[in-house]
Amino acid sequence: MSDVLSQSEIDNLLKELTQGNLKDEQVEDEKFKRYDFRTANKFTKEQVRTLHNIYSTFSHLFSTYLSGTLRTTCQVEVLSAEELTYSEYTNSLQSPLILAIIDMAPLEGSTLIEMSPNIAYGIINRLLGGKGGDLEASKTFTDIDIALIEKVIVQILKQIDSAWSRIVAVRSVLNRIETSPQFAQIVSYSEPTVIVTISVKIADEVEGFINICIPLVALEPVLDNMESSIWVSSKKVIIDKENEKEIKKRLLNTKFELIATFNEISMTLGEFLALETGDVIKLDQKVTDKLKLSVSKLPKFYGKLGVFENRYAVKIADIIEEEQEDG
Predict the structure, then answer these.
(1) Tens-place pLDDT, residues 162-182
(2) For residue 17, what are the domain limits?
(3) Strands (E) located in the chain
(4) Could you tell me the pLDDT band of residue 102, with boundaries at 50, 70 and 90?
(5) Are 243 and 262 in a shared domain?
(6) Is 169 in the same domain as 240?
């Protein structure tokens, strides 16, 4: 018999037991799986799924913030959300690392944000003008390092508050930052927690994890909201007004290349190889004809060639509409 009985096998055993056909020796010989109520899951699958969705939204928001702050492409993605006891989680931690202890009213107690050393050093390196490469993982964090990471974590808390807004209005505050697990005990070691593991990739150069540890006691005030159907899993990114304003500000200050081009001409390879200094190439375009101005190889304007303050210049004459370009 397999470790897990099918429903028909259970029904047959109960039937034989009630009819007296099943002897005690037979019962003792059967394989039963013991169920330890002390280690039973305290979180329902729906609650864990809701936390996964909350921090998926956070991942989108944090990715936008991190890409703008570090001025490079950053990918942030939730890998898993699973239930562990606090001791199982802390036993896997190694020093040094960044452990931010967070108060999230109206959630009770504290939660943990753990940042792996390579991600922390990658962020610090970029903030100080470096290329963000991996540094020595065993290097001790200095006061300057912690001060820089603290500013990043404060911004992380804003993204977390936005991600939680569909469940409950959360006000996250940074309590303190520790670099050793032994100074960051927030609950008893037997307390059930949900560990949300988030993958962070910075410019294809640095890759690591951020783990968020949420104890059961912290979630008790909002467990009913997490069970209800108000959360609808969606890929839509929730952007509050503050984030929207910041994104617009960064976009307006983004530099791009605007290129004015003449009409193309064709020549043979022999003619090209025969070109010398002083040769004149006749363009298939009159001086009065409009030039085409492109942004990232996409035509956007027509312009007229001229001179402004002793420099060659192009005056915008017309806007190329999308329908016109498609036509």
Answers:
(1) 988 888 888 999 999 988 888
(2) 7-33
(3) 74-85, 98-105, 110-115, 171-178, 192-202, 206-215, 258-261, 291-295, 298-308, 311-319
(4) very high
(5) no
(6) yes
